[in-house]
Design goal:
Layout (H helix, E strand, L loop, with lengths): L1 E3 L9 H12 L5 E3 L2 H9 L8 H18 L6 E5 L1 H12 L6 E5 L24 E6 L7 H4 L8 E6 L16 H16 L1
Parallel strand pairs: 1-2, 1-3, 3-4, 4-5, 5-6
Length: 193
């Protein structure tokens, strides 16, 4: 599985590292990478906004091609956290050869506070299997709003009780962040199986 980071944190952010380790424990080989703007941020120490979608998508295509040229005949899944997962779904919707499915952890269905502008058009007709692990109270896609979207039958959403965009629930929910991360890893493992 190739996993991309979200808009504001690098590939070695605690969330990304935790998810990669949990998946590896369950037999899923994970490769992480960084988009060009994040590489620049590391090199120069200046915070930069994400590149525009065409550059992010081109980067995704290059990474997929590099992995396909390196590893022979294994099922390949792509995905990521938030923006990284969204870009993975856009690449998958293009029909990139050799990709078996997409996993999104905290999908940004809309910009915070703008549910009237959903980012789901490509998810309405996507043909590849897509797993979205989403917190019920995610500020970029809460359950109440998202269940109203007309998504492809190939899109499966696993809702985590009271989870936010990082899948973290409030203490009063009776769940812990640890439990939700375990549930996310298990859901991904079942999906890729």
């Amino acid at each position: 599985m190739i996993l991309a980071h979200g808009a504001g944190a690098p590939m070695d952010h605690a969330f990304m590292t935790d998810v990669a380790e949990r998946l590896a424990e369950r037999g899923v080989t994970v490769v992480r990478f960084e988009f060009p703007y994040m590489v620049e941020r590391r090199l120069h120490g200046k915070k930069r906004p994400p590149d525009r979608a065409p550059k992010l998508l081109a980067c995704w295509r290059e990474v997929i091609a590099d992995i396909q040229n390196t590893v022979d005949s294994v099922p390949l899944f792509i995905g990521g956290k938030s923006m990284g997962g969204r870009m993975a779904t856009l690449v998958a919707a293009e029909g990139v050869a050799g990709v078996n499915g997409v996993v999104c952890l905290g999908y940004p269905f809309y910009a915070t506070g703008k549910p009237e502008k959903p980012r789901v058009e490509h998810l309405q007709g996507i043909e590849l299997p897509v797993l979205i692990v989403q917190g019920e109270r995610d500020a970029m896609g809460n359950q109440e709003t998202v269940v109203e979207y007309n998504l492809s039958d190939h899109v499966e959403i696993v809702w985590l009780v009271d989870g936010n965009h990082d899948l973290k629930p409030r203490k009063a929910s009776g769940f812990s962040h640890e439990e939700h991360l375990v549930s996310a890893a298990k859901a991904v493992r079942v999906f890729v199986s």
